[in-house]
Amino acid sequence: MFVQSITFKTLAKMNTKVSNLNERTQYFSTDEMLNELKAKMQPNDVVINFGYSDYGGDFFDKVCIAFFAENYPNNIVKETTYYSGENAFIFGEVAAEFLEVTENYLLGFDNIESFYYEMENKEREAGIKYFIESLDTDKYEISAEIPSEFYEYVEGYCNVLTSGLDYSESDMIIKAIKTGLIKEIPETV
After folding, report:
1. What does pTM read for this prediction?
2. Domain parsing of the chain, residue ranges
3. Spatial CA neighbour of 123 closest among 167, 57, 178
4. Which of 33, 40, 65, 93 has the highest count of CB atoms within 10 angstroms of its CB?
């Protein structure tokens, strides 16, 4: 069963209680995950649903699921979904505190800000590595070091998505040449 994604922004306003979990218009879940959630929750617990896939949700959803799984494992139930995704419910006092603290700044809860930027940097580095590894070595000579100017370009002009780094390959090649990361190999006739 495909579990669709829904972003935190929509669900934060919902502030679901356990009694509302039978109305599935506000969230998406398999029956198995919903039953696991109900077994772990207290009657007045606040519930937040995070979810993403290659086709929905955003990087913040991915970060929140990873953050709560690592830091608050007793307050999360999660499942893997189709299309490289995950779906999770965060519940209890932690969920209530998260909603309160993040009302004005989404990265204001606990140490989620540093966790977010660490995950973002890892995704960016993986995207750069993939870009370099996918270059045609018959056309380009690759420098041993990545110039800091290239990192700055990637940070400013490429988006980190749930599926990795989103970039224009032609723009990346132009910038890689300008910064000295790669050189074009002249065609031999």
Report:
1. 0.82
2. 8-110, 114-184
3. 167
4. 65
Kindly report, residue by residue over 153-187, the tens digit of the pLDDT: 898 889 999 999 999 999 999 999 999 999 999 88
Helix, coil or strand: residue 23: coil
d(C-alpha 178, C-alpha 69), whole Å? 41
Burial 83-120 (b: 16+ CB within 10 A, else e): eebbbbbbbbebbbebbeebeeebbebbebeebbeebe
* Encoded tokens for 99: 């909603």
Helix axes 112-133, 59-71, angle to 10 degrees: 120
Which pLDDT belongs to residue 64? 96
Relative to beta strand 76-81, strand 85-91 is antiparallel
- Taken as a whole, the chain contains a residue count of 189
